[in-house]
């Protein structure tokens, strides 16, 4: 999580939302009668946490006390302007979005179990006491000024779970390990909470209806790198007025990405040989630094003139960002090493741990099996050891911007890197070679005027999602069909001399200017919700979803341009209109068979509550 002002009471690595009555009444001239009295309770992805805080701000027309954002006429998503919101973004709904940014793994844990207590921060081993604040909080989880509605944590219920990795493809596999806590409610910043046991919980269609999984927006996973070392000479940097242009900290080829994240190369001074593919798909080899040319340097040279370890900063918690990264590596890297000379197939395709995974530890296990112990080994004390961190903000801070952190590289959502990040600690990001560039024979970036490789921008994510080989959504889709990572090349498909049949489309897209580390954050919802304690629950939820989803389509009469602008100000892009149309028809339109529904107090429900008892609490 981005570290905000030092005057905050509670800081941490997870983004959590709470509306203060005072802040609401003071913002945008909102009338006293508009104070939020109902909530939409959401938890999960830290990748999406900053964006959804701002989206909920837009929806209420008010900022949350201490969240670091403000409505301003200077807002400009095209520039962008981190920390600012559109001055006219004033829907002024009295329904406040509450968001616990606790990571994708915990987000779906809470959703599958329908238990908001599972939205804790970090990884918990049973029979463990977590010191307060619990979970780590920024801004505060609770709203002490509005205790009637939002004054305690855990939240009173689960409305939506968010994750950048998908739900399992079968109902039988929709299971999670549910942790038991003492106390079970009213967690505060001053009380420790003990994890006292665990049990396996399976999603209950008989209680909640069929699960719903839809994309929230198109995301980029950026590769932050700390270049603050006098020994580094990255010739492929693009600078403007002494500042690195977004995406120009370094320009990395597919071959270099695979070498770094497989442990083949562990020092910026390395002269090791690595594999790559030429435009015809033929395997070639070169020194690790083969693309380090430009800015007046015609011959490639090592990135550092002295040893400087490449310290990979990785997520230690269940992370959808890890899933998107490993999905890319699994699709791309084995193609570069068909005979497993460099152990890419052993690490990414045939290892004992199946990739993609939201646990980076699975990738480390495969690297250890292929290469033995090294800097990637957990708890290693060797020089250049890889660094674990919890949450997107933890990775951001661990990569850092100080010279003592030089040489570190990681993976976070684009809004935790410049130019989208609001935090001063935000590092610069890399630009990546994609398949279109590889097929065009562009392996050496030209740095004379602009970036050659692709930066993690909203337009670059949208270009990846425009690949016509991705399946068009249909109203017959289930939650599993919305898993865009499982959208693979069908039939026999050869591109650039390489057989990509059966592989994930997004990482291997050959669309010009498409960023290859693209994906989504999924919204997980129930078909059937209990409304016994809040009769307006489903109405409020659907009103928000309609406003949000329809923001993708400028031709829709209910379109709100500010939705897309806020998303782009975070480095993301709204979903394609084809998805918007399909989601509205399936789940939000009046006549939809898969309508998100309210469970009746007694008897048999209809639509999403057909053959369901109870509904999601």
Descriptive terms for the model:
617 residues, alpha/beta, six-stranded mixed sheet, three-stranded antiparallel sheet, 15 helices, globular
Describe the protein in words.
Helix content is 22%, strand content 18%. The model is unreliable at 1-35 (pLDDT under 50). It contains 15 helices and 26 strands. It is globular, with a radius of gyration of 24 Å. The longest helix is centred in the middle third of the chain and has 17 residues, at 320-336. The strands form 10 sheets. It has a 6-stranded mixed beta sheet. By secondary structure, it is of the alpha/beta class.
Largest sheet: 6 strands, mixed
Q: Characterize the quaternary organization of these chains.
A: single chain
Return residue spans where pLDDT drops below 50 for at least 5 consecutive residues: 1-35
Widest β-sheet, arrangement of strands: 4-1-6-24-9-19
Strand content: 15-25%
Task: Count all strands and give the number.
Answer: 26
Structural classification: alpha/beta
């Amino acid at each position: 999580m981005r570290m905000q002002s030092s005057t905050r009471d509670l800081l941490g690595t997870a983004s959590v939302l709470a509306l203060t009555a005072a802040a609401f009444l003071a913002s945008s001239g909102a009338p006293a009668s508009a104070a939020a009295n109902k909530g939409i309770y959401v938890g999960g992805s830290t990748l999406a946490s900053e964006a959804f805080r701002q989206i909920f701000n837009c929806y209420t027309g008010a900022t949350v006390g201490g969240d670091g954002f403000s409505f301003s006429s200077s807002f400009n998503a095209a520039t962008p302007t981190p920390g600012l919101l559109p001055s006219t973004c004033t829907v002024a709904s009295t329904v406040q979005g509450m968001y616990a940014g606790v990571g994708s793994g915990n987000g779906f844990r809470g959703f599958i179990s329908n238990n908001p207590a599972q939205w804790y921060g970090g990884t918990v081993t049973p029979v463990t006491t977590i010191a307060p604040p619990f979970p780590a909080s920024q801004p505060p989880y609770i709203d002490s000024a509005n205790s009637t509605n939002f004054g305690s944590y855990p939240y009173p219920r689960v409305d939506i779970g968010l994750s950048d990795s998908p739900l399992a493809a079968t109902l039988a596999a929709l299971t999670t390990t549910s942790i038991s806590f003492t106390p079970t409610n009213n967690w505060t910043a001053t009380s420790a909470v003990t994890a006292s046991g665990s049990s396996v919980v399976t999603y209950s269609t008989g209680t909640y209806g069929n699960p719903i999984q839809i994309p929230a927006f198109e995301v980029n996973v950026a590769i932050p790198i700390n270049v603050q070392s006098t020994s580094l000479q990255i010739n492929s940097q693009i600078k403007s007025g002494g500042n690195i242009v977004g995406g120009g900290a370094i320009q990395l080829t597919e071959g270099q990405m695979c070498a770094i994240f497989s442990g083949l190369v562990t020092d910026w001074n390395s002269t090791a040989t690595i594999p790559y593919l030429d435009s015809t798909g033929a395997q070639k080899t070169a020194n690790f630094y083969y693309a380090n040319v430009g800015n007046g340097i015609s011959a490639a040279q090592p990135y550092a003139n002295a040893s400087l370890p490449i310290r990979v900063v990785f997520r230690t918690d269940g992370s959808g960002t890890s899933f998107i990264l490993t999905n890319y590596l699994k699709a791309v890297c084995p193609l570069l090493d068909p005979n497993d000379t460099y152990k890419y197939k052993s690490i990414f395709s045939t290892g004992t741990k199946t990739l993609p995974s939201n646990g980076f530890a699975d990738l480390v296990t495969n690297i250890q099996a292929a290469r033995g112990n090294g800097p990637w080994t957990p708890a290693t004390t060797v020089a250049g050891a890889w660094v674990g961190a919890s949450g997107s903000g933890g990775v951001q801070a661990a990569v850092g911007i100080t010279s003592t952190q030089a040489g570190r590289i990681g993976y976070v959502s684009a809004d935790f890197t410049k130019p989208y990040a609001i935090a001063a600690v935000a590092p610069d990001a890399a630009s990546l070679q994609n398949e279109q560039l590889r097929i065009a024979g562009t392996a050496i970036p030209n740095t004379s005027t602009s970036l050659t490789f692709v930066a993690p921008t909203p337009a670059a994510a949208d270009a990846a999602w425009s690949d016509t080989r991705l399946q068009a959504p249909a109203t017959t889709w289930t939650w599993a069909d919305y898993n865009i990572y499982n959208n693979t090349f069908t039939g026999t498909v050869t591109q650039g001399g390489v057989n990509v049949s059966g592989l994930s489309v997004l990482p291997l897209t050959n669309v010009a200017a498409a960023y290859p580390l693209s994906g989504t954050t999924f919204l997980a919802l129930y078909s059937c919700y209990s409304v016994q304690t809040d009769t307006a629950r489903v109405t409020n939820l659907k009103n928000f979803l309609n406003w949000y989803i329809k923001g993708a389509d400028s031709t829709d009469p209910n379109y709100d341009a500010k939705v897309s602008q806020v998303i782009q100000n975070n480095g993301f892009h709204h979903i394609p209109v084809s998805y918007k149309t399909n989601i509205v028809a399936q789940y939000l339109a009046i006549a939809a068979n898969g309508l998100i529904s309210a469970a009746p107090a007694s008897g048999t429900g209809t639509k999403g509550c057909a053959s369901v008892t109870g509904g999601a609490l």
